[in-house]
Amino acid sequence: MRILHLSDTHLYGDPAARHYDRIDTAAALRGLLARCRDVPDLDAIIHTGDASDDGSAASYRLLHEILEPFAAAKDAELVIAMGNHDDSEVYGETIALGDRGTTVQDRVVPLPGGRRVVVLDTSVPGAGYGHLDPEQLVWLREVLAEPSAAGTVLALHHPPLAAATPLLRALELDGIDELAGVLEGSDVQVVLSGHYHHEMTGQIAGIPVHVVPGVTNVVDPVTAGEREQARALTGVSLVELGAGAPRVITSVLPHAGDTLADQDVPVYDFGPEQVTAIVQAAGR
Question: Burial, 157: exposed, middle or buried (Cβ in 10 Å; 0-12, 13-18, 19+)?
């Protein structure tokens, strides 16, 4: 099983809109897929949320206009999870359930070879942090009570891992311990997430967790110091499942949608006051 994992495309309904007045997010996604055209033997393409930046119907139509032909050419299932910038109701009204690989909120998507993707919607309307309702955990426990023949992939936007920066810590997923209790002893082989915009690995209930870098930009969690910075880079991962532990290979690449075309200039550079304002607006 080979999965192309991407996240955080932040598409807009307005073709003239630019992320932070700089990034053409549609061009970024198209450029990334062009670089992936020779990746062989894909079984699934999993997008772990923040597909849209504005939550508009037009942005979701654009998402599928770009991703559907690529998935069809690869004969791969396409799975979309919802993130904190998404609007699951608009997505569901725009992209009919039952279309190729579409998902809204909590769903199970069969994959070739006896595997499945379980998709959880961790978004909170109007907020940046993630949350799972008790009803979602009950549903997940019921789904996992019947193992899939070859195992399960869990896809959700907010990683079940402690964040690396002060800003992202305010936008973490609630209830990680409760989720771990549901996943303990299950057939889940890997948890795939986005949201942090940088690569990160860890475990929950002994299960590997992989966070893929963002398509629209890549956060610098190591060298930015007390500031919050993102660079005009784009990322994607290849996840291979078989016997033993998952194998994850990640590329961080030059940005095809950067209108400034200068990787040395951050896409954003937030000081403490800006971080505090964002936390007050989008955090708990």
Answer: buried
- Where residue 131 sits, what CATH number does that domain have? 3.60.21.10
Q: What percent of the chain has pLDDT over 90?
A: 90
Task: Say which residue the tokens 């896809």 belong to.
Answer: 155
Between the CA of residue 93 and those of 9, 60, 87, 96, 103, what are the distances in Å?
20, 10, 10, 7, 12
For residue 17, what pLDDT is reported? 98
Question: Higher model confidence: residue 106 or residue 113?
Answer: 113
Burial class of 140 by CB neighbour count within 10 A (0 to 12, 13 to 18, 19+): buried
Full residue range of the structural domain in which residue 157 is found: 2-282
**104: which 2 tokens?**
């809204």
